[in-house]
């Protein structure tokens, strides 16, 4: 498995030094705005103010608000990937594979809480199942199923486990059906445990 976090869309060139630090600074500022005020608060001007730079710097870096939104999603996706590839257990290495599987689902649902609208937009923009980031998640879940001793068609089972984490579905269940995110996370954990249970009888 590739151990380098991959992009939500195509692999982007590796940035070096100041460019990478400045990009992270801007994206961290945008993430804080989402956390504090929601997606609508993320404007080029607001990000510039939050990061302490001129608005032109944000436009030069991302081109437009749409470019900023996609970069923000990519930033969050890479952070999640880094957490499950290298972070502390139970999400990262070192825990039982089933515990890691459950932690992965909970982390993915928690990400929808903060950036659901952005994720839904990305899912509908033609980068849903073919995106490198999606393939990383698929391989990760498949690997954990194998390590847990799960019997069956692991690629298909991994896809079945990822399906309930779809941002569009989670947002529908949460906002329109009124299911709390914790309930969705618990249900996903139950599904993951049921899928792996036969190997532990």
Tell me what you see in this structure:
The model has no long low-confidence stretch (mean pLDDT 84). This protein has 2 domains: 13-63, Orthogonal Bundle (Arc Repressor Mutant, subunit A); 65-200, Tetracycline Repressor, domain 2 (Orthogonal Bundle). The protein is globular. It has helices spanning 17-37, 44-51, 55-62, 65-86, 97-123, 132-147, 154-162, 167-176, 181-196. The protein contains 9 helices and no strands. Helix content is 68%, strand content 0%. The chain is mainly alpha-helical and 201 residues long. Residues 43-62 bind DNA. It comes from Rhodococcus coprophilus.
CATH topology of the largest domain: Tetracycline Repressor, domain 2
CATH homology-level superfamily of the largest domain: Tetracycline Repressor, domain 2
CATH class category label of the largest domain: Mainly Alpha
Under the CATH scheme, the architecture of the largest domain is: Orthogonal Bundle
What is the terminal-to-terminal distance?
Answer: 29 Å
- Biggest sheet descriptor: none
Extended strand count: 0
Shape: globular
Protein name: TetR family transcriptional regulator
Keywords: DNA-binding
InterPro entries: Homeodomain-like_sf, HTH-type_TetR-like_transc_reg, HTH_TetR
GO molecular function: DNA-binding transcription factor activity; transcription cis-regulatory region binding
